[in-house]
Amino acid sequence: MTNQPNSPTRGPVSRRGAVQRLAAAGLALGASAATTHTMNASPTPAAPEPFRVTKGRIRQSAVWWCFKPMTADELAGHAAALGMPAIELVPPEEWPKLRQRGLTCALAPSHGFAKGFAHREEHTECLAMLHERIDQAAAAGVPSVITFSGFRRGLSPAEGRANMLDGLRQIAGHAEKQKVTVCLEMLNSRVNAEMRGHPDYFCDDIDAAVEICRTVGSERVKVLFDIYHVQIMHGDIISRIRQHHPWIGHYHTAGNPGRVELDTTQELYYPPIMAAIAETGYHGFVGHEFIPTRDPVAGLTEAVRLCDV
Q1: Phi/psi zone of residue 173: left (φ > 0), alpha (ψ -120 to 50 degrees), beta?
Q2: Could you tell me the domains of the chain?
Q3: Three-class secondary structure of residue 254 per DSSP
């Protein structure tokens, strides 16, 4: 073998030298490919930046059931780190743990949405549960207890309304005595997906629900204005907040469509909604009730940041 042109100092190549040169070339090629892959790969999502409430005009809470299997105490820990004053729909046996973290239960659970005041035959059970829970809430400094209408199951609007008024009037006096607000939740009946909608629910109209509470005529019987459910049934969120605010005892949030996080993928933009709530002089709680589709703490952090107006 002779030297190649223009390579006067290059001598014959041994078999061992050729193998060594090929191996070195392979290592260089592998390193180059690894570098290219690293440059082209999708970046690992960054952990959410630490955030803590600074403005605090909106007293934010988190609804526990959405974040399970996280325990109530774990959720309370995350809420406390974010500067939130409460979590909610937590049973009384969990309330001492919240107090240890400097939190309260913003809204106490009661009889569940499957039953309610639209049916007279369900009044006894619902009233007994509410009476007990109101007493527990008053003793623990919990401001509100949730209640529901239950489902139509063939009821006419007039009959259901009359039943609602009769049942709520029976609990109003006790709520006034104990200074605890009973909050009637309006739910959407359009979406037929588990925990995202409730077909055949009686109080599926926010205007009608407010009218029921107004007719009861007690400062301790108000509506739970769930922004997600109202958006699905009506829209026009800010106008309805301004219209109905004297009869709103609690708020819930979630993104729509899908009852997901409060982010830029959905049609509700929460900062102006929260500003409208604050402008009404509301001093109660706003509970985040979205169903996480990704890291729940990151989603909660984002929601709290958006709503701290």
Answers
A1: alpha
A2: 59-307 (3.20.20.150)
A3: coil
